[in-house]
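So, who can interpret the following?
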Amino acid sequence: MTAFLIRWLVTTIAVFAAEKIIPGIHCNSAGALLGASLLLGIINAFVRPILLLLSIPFIIVTMGLFILVVNALMLMLVAQIVPSFSVDGFWNAFFGSMVISLVSWILSSFFRTSDGRIHSITHHPSIKKADARVIE
């Protein structure tokens, strides 16, 4: 439960940062901000993997850049569902999703793990290396 609340807080801070940085993203209240970030997390957990799977050919052709378009579409979907949260157009959603991704990535790198220490996501000392050999 604590991990969920921390993840929700990180997403809320990221959406708040995107609202402040991108002029086309508007949120009328703190409740709308919390609701939009919660819904964005839920949609990213359940809908985004399906869209990524369906758009694999576009992702391959664009060398992964189409994932940014999928992220923007997820943000626009949240804006359609949450009444007090709005995104003015695709490009605002595109750049807003980039800000949300960047802020979430930076903040997530400071999570405490179950052993109580802070580990960067890119390097975790408890991950064991494979003991293998190369067959030629």
